[in-house]
């Protein structure tokens, strides 16, 4: 996908028109080929862009405005429907290009498997990479119903790739017993149910390190984000997730990229989920890009 051609569809509010002098590249990964419950997250990036028009450009939390950060909306990667492996290869190639240009990649999913090739690309550039992962689910399976390419596997894949001790999961409340046992035996950090307080304890230990942050919208309780493929009760509030994004922003970690995945607009006629996602992305841009 070329960056020298303007994206013709809707763009995220206040998107900069030029790739070359932008700090951040926002892009969509419209894939839901491997979901185990409800499809529809491939429509997430487009709807997040559409509802972003209702956002204020100023963040009360960070005292910054979107015009202070130049970010370019590159649109959605044109992924081949149903072809999981080719889609993952295309995502990795796309992010490789962003990193080669010295930009900050910020992705929108799509199912959570799309984060796997992004994190692989990040690790090639940052060999000391750490992952911060917000999710309702462990995503530590080796396969789902015999299929290793599944949205229930990306965190296991990256943990085995960069070392489990470099992966930190927060808000987890669902998974197999074997997944938790694997994490415990291999030194991976999992914070069950909670996010903000354990995150604050971990952040000082990651000071100075390159960190990639992946957020599955279902870390939120369904009362706050019903528009997702695999809802799971008992989650955190949107206020706590915002506070977590800000805690990362105010820490000494070096955030080098991030993504927000699993928004499935069809299951939320109120558009609460898409609107929440667009605000979270605004705070990620303003908080993590210095």
TrEMBL record:
Keywords: Hydrolase, Manganese, Metal-binding, Polyamine biosynthesis, Putrescine biosynthesis, Spermidine biosynthesis. GO terms for molecular function: agmatinase activity; metal ion binding. It is an enzyme of class 3 (hydrolase). Its cofactor is Mn(2+). Pfam families: Arginase. Pathway: Amine and polyamine biosynthesis; putrescine biosynthesis via agmatine pathway; putrescine from agmatine: step 1/1. Its EC number is 3.5.3.11. Gene3D superfamilies: Ureohydrolase domain. Mn(2+) binds at residues 112, 135, 137, 139, 216, 218. PROSITE patterns: ARGINASE_1, ARGINASE_2. GO terms for biological process: putrescine biosynthetic process from arginine, via agmatine; spermidine biosynthetic process. InterPro entries: Agmatinase-rel, Ureohydrolase, Ureohydrolase_dom_sf, Ureohydrolase_Mn_BS. Binds 2 manganese ions per subunit. It catalyses: agmatine + H2O = urea + putrescine. Belongs to the arginase family. Agmatinase subfamily. Catalyzes the formation of putrescine from agmatine. NCBIfam families: agmatinase (TIGR01230). This is Agmatinase. It comes from Neobacillus cucumis. The gene is speB.
